[in-house]
Design brief:
Radius of gyration: 29 Å
Strand order of the largest sheet: 1-5-6-12-11-10-7-9-8
Number of domains: 2
Number of strands: 17
CATH class of the largest domain: Alpha Beta
Strand content: 15-25%
Helix content: 25-40%
């Protein structure tokens, strides 16, 4: 029987050293983008009851969730998304809160991706939720923050595609279709499958509104710049559908005034989950990454599931995909620190420790050697690509080593070397 103790589950990965450091840096940049706009940190449990994610207003199929049982036999899941737990927290823990309230987070979510295609089953998501207000300002602010968060991480060449869930819902309601057939049409439109959509409408739609049917048949083609919205307005006289399109225009005008219109395109065939989203929806795409790196929208009905009827809008960024996008354009920050090691004899530990504190306070990465000899310390530094070693062997003498093709050194008498830091800075500049 194979022993799995040396392996990790399929769809997971170990993140080490420089890659780990870069991921933490990106997460911090994203968090700073949110905090500076007035958002508050929140962390939900990794384990939730399955019931939290079960029901109509969920975007995750139950077979995609990792399930287990607690000691009372109740079904638990590893958190498959973060928005739903935030909805639960809002409805059950924030009775005295002043709304609107802004949340931000960076946490792992767990979803079973059977085919993977480069996806992992543990994904780091970073995002925001604005809860308690339904307004054009909130819609526009959410998209603007998403754009600026990506820009703050160094990504410039990307597009935010904007759609409107109510536009499709308003049109489809007039076609008198079953829930199953509505879902089929949604799939054809989202996949831009023109032929299948035409055949399905001919074979299944007996009673319909001509204008709504015409608009639905054109939906897969309605993507591009702002002129697409004008074209869609001419395709229907459905009042709610027109209102949804006007909502897109109003949101876009605010984004335009913020000077960010160049990042925006439109896709009225972007429908996503019909029962979940209730207004503006959007996704961000960039070169070299399969799928979207950001996804969000308005979901005014979700919190009602937990006992409070509150509007909400938010987005989530796939941090791992964002890092891949940054790597593709060479925008990673594997910055080499000023790094040194201090070797010392046992009787000089206090002096070595105090000098290490000074170096760390002034921006150096400073290790205290764990070896018993200077030679072993130099070998260690060489193997770790650390170019400086300070050796404290005698109270009266200090030796600075600098590696440039080979180890070179300078000896100093302690009484003439009051500032280790100054000498180390000089050697780094040489």
């Amino acid at each position: 029987m194979l022993n799995w103790m040396r392996y990790i589950p399929e769809g997971t990965k170990d993140v080490l050293f420089d890659e780990c450091r870069e991921k933490i840096r990106i997460e911090k940049l994203l968090r700073d983008s949110y905090i500076n706009c007035g958002f508050l940190d929140i962390i939900s449990p990794t384990l939730e009851f399955y019931d939290v994610f079960n029901g109509e207003n969920t975007t995750i199929a139950q077979e995609k969730m990792y399930k287990l049982f607690d000691n009372q036999g109740r079904i638990l899941v590893l958190r498959p998304d973060i928005t739903t737990p935030i909805a639960r927290i809002t409805a059950t823990k924030l009775n005295e809160a002043s709304f609107p309230i802004r949340f931000c987070y960076t946490s792992s979510v767990f979803r079973v991706n059977e085919s993977l295609f480069g996806k992992t089953n543990e994904v780091t998501q970073s995002g925001i939720e604005t809860i308690g207000i339904n307004s054009i300002k909130a819609d526009a602010e959410t998209i603007i923050i998403g754009i600026n968060a990506l820009r703050n991480c160094g990504l410039k060449d990307f597009k935010i595609e904007i759609g409107q869930a109510e536009f499709f819902k308003s049109l489809i309601e007039e076609l008198k279709l079953s829930g199953e057939n509505k879902e089929k049409i949604r799939g054809y439109v989202e996949d831009k499958n023109f032929i299948a959509l035409d055949h399905f409408i001919i074979e299944n739609v007996k009673e319909y509104s001509p204008s709504s049917l015409k608009a639905i048949k054109e939906l897969p083609k309605l993507f591009g710049n702002i002129e697409i919205i004008d074209k869609a307005l001419k395709l229907t006289n459905n009042r709610n559908a027109i209102k949804a399109l006007e909502n897109i225009i109003d949101v876009y005008r605010l984004i335009e005034k913020a000077g960010l219109a160049s990042y925006v395109t439109f896709d009225l065939g972007m429908i996503q989950h019909m029962d979940y989203y209730s207004g503006i929806i959007f996704r961000a795409f960039t070169h070299g990454v399969g799928g979207y790196i950001l996804s969000g929208g308005r979901y005014d009905g979700l919190i009602k599931k937990f006992g409070r009827d509150l509007p909400a809008i938010g987005f989530a960024i796939d941090v791992d995909s964002l890092i891949i996008a940054l790597q593709n354009i060479g925008h990673v920050n594997y910055k080499k620190d000023k790094h040194l090691v201090i070797y010392y004899t046992e009787e000089l530990f206090n002096k070595a420790f105090q000098q290490a504190v000074t170096f760390r306070e002034n921006g150096f990465v400073c290790e205290l050697s764990l070896f018993d000899s200077e030679e072993e310390t130099l070998d260690y530094a060489f193997n770790k690509n650390i170019s400086m070693v300070i050796s404290l062997i005698e109270e009266s003498q200090i030796r600075f080593y600098k590696y440039t093709k080979k180890w070179n050194h300078k000896d100093f008498e302690s009484k003439y070397l009051n500032n280790f830091l100054e000498e180390a800075e000089k050697l780094y500049e040489e």
